Amino acid sequence: MSSKTGNITYFSDHLDKQYGKRGSVSREQYEQGFEAFKLGVMLPVASPKRRAYARKVGGKMRHKQVLFSG
User: Helices 11-19 and 25-57 sit at what angle, rounded to 10 degrees?
Assistant: First the structure.
């Protein structure tokens, strides 16, 4: 895949230049941090939906506390 098409640079090529190729220490640190960020954004959005669904079906949804080590 060409890294540039006209004025367009692929995001994966940008990450390669900024953090190194996949498997490098700096790139893996970036990927791990980005996954943590995504979870941090998704969990508050998902939680109200779970509660709304629980109210809709008339029961309480129980969940286990999940601890992440980073």
Answer: 130
**In-domain check, residue 65:** no
Letter for the amino acid at 34? F
| Residue at 29 is within a domain | yes
List the structure tokens of 67.
């601890």
Count of structural domains within the chain: 1
Average pLDDT value for residue range 28-46: 89
Q: Is the pLDDT of residue 32 over 90?
A: yes
What is the Cα–Cα distance from 35 to 57, expressed in whole angstroms? Answer: 31
Asked if residue 38 is part of any domain, the answer here is yes
Neighbouring-strand partners of residue 8: 5
Structural domain includes residue 67: no
- The verdict on pTM exceeding 0.70 is no
